[in-house]
Amino acid sequence: MTANAQGVWSFTPTGLADGVHAIVASQTDTFNNTGTASLTFTLDTSAPAETLAITAIATDTGGSSSDFITSDTTLTVSGSNGALAAGEKIQVSSDGGATWTDVAQTTTTSWSLVDGATHASSFTYQARIVDTAGNVGTTASQAVTIDTVAPAVAITTIEGGDNLIDAAEAAGGIQVGGTAEIGSTLTVNGTAVTVDGTGHWTTSVTPAGQGALVVTAVCDRRGW
């Protein structure tokens, strides 16, 4: 090949297998003097193949500790992996792959990352294994639901309707009703109450004796 006017030339090797290779270039001038230069490099096109999974967030405040539903906006994400080869690492992204952060291995087959971002809304964690050559191997993803809005609950009716309970109304318990978020868990004065498909509920409350009766309804959605 011939160098250009600036003395620059290029060569593209083809058909190389993974491994160590050497390129040797020589130049001969018009007086038959020869100079040489060499470059050794390692070709690695094999992507990592170890297993990888995202297994938990902390704190997961949902109905179970593994449903990835939380009211926490600052999280620690963790997972499992097959034992990595030398030079391989796990990275995590929470912004659709725009940025990646190296995780810390807690053991040879587990990892965690204290996420420095504050997540005001739902998002997806992505994890990947990368080797020293930049080959991206196994990937994993996990959607996270951020729910920071407390469920609404209201007491709308009480037997008698005048906030005064006489003996006849108190007999057999005082009927109380209201509204709550559909699918939520509701307790009224500490007793579980079912919320129907229209978001309404009713229950009977027994007064402890004469005097004021306080009715407290607590609505719980996925760990609130």
Summarize this entry quickly.
With 224 residues, this protein is mainly β. It has one helix at 167-170, and strands spanning 19-28, 34-43, 52-58, 69-70, 76-81, 89-93, 101-102, 104-107, 110-114, 123-130, 136-146, 153-158, 174-180, 185-188, 191-193, 200-205, 217-220.
Write a structural description:
There is one protein chain. The protein has 224 residues and is mainly beta. It folds into two domains: 52-146, Immunoglobulins (Immunoglobulin-like, Sandwich); 153-220. The chain has one helix and 17 strands. The strands form five sheets. The chain has a five-stranded mixed β-sheet with strand order 4-11-10-6-7, with no helix packed on it.
Describe the secondary structure blueprint for this structure:
Layout: E1 19-28, E2 34-43, E3 52-58, E4 69-70, E5 76-81, E6 89-93, E7 101-102, E8 104-107, E9 110-114, E10 123-130, E11 136-146, E12 153-158, H1 167-170, E13 174-180, E14 185-188, E15 191-193, E16 200-205, E17 217-220
Parallel strand pairs: 4-11
Antiparallel strand pairs: 1-2, 3-5, 5-9, 6-7, 6-10, 8-9, 10-11, 12-13, 13-16, 14-15, 14-17
Count the DSSP helices: 1
Strand content: 35-45%
- Total separate domains: 2
Oligomerization state: single chain
Arithmetic mean of pLDDT: 91
- The SSE string, one letter per element, is EEEEEEEEEEEEHEEEEE
Identify low-pLDDT runs: none
In CATH terms, what is the fold-level topology of the largest domain?
Answer: Immunoglobulin-like
Architecture per CATH nomenclature, i.e. the level-2 architecture of the largest domain: Sandwich
Sheet bearing the most strands, described? Answer: 5 strands, mixed
Helix-and-strand structural type: mainly beta
Kindly, what is the distance between the CA atoms of the first and last residues, rounded to a whole number of angstroms?
72 Å
Give the CATH level 1 class of the largest domain: Mainly Beta
Q: What fraction, in percent, of the residue positions are helical? A: under 10%
Shape: rod-shaped
Q: What is the radius of gyration computed over CA atoms, rounded to a whole number of angstroms?
A: 33 Å
* Biggest β-sheet: strands ordered side by side in the sheet: 4-11-10-6-7
**What name goes with the CATH superfamily of the largest domain?**
Immunoglobulins
The total of beta strands comes to: 17
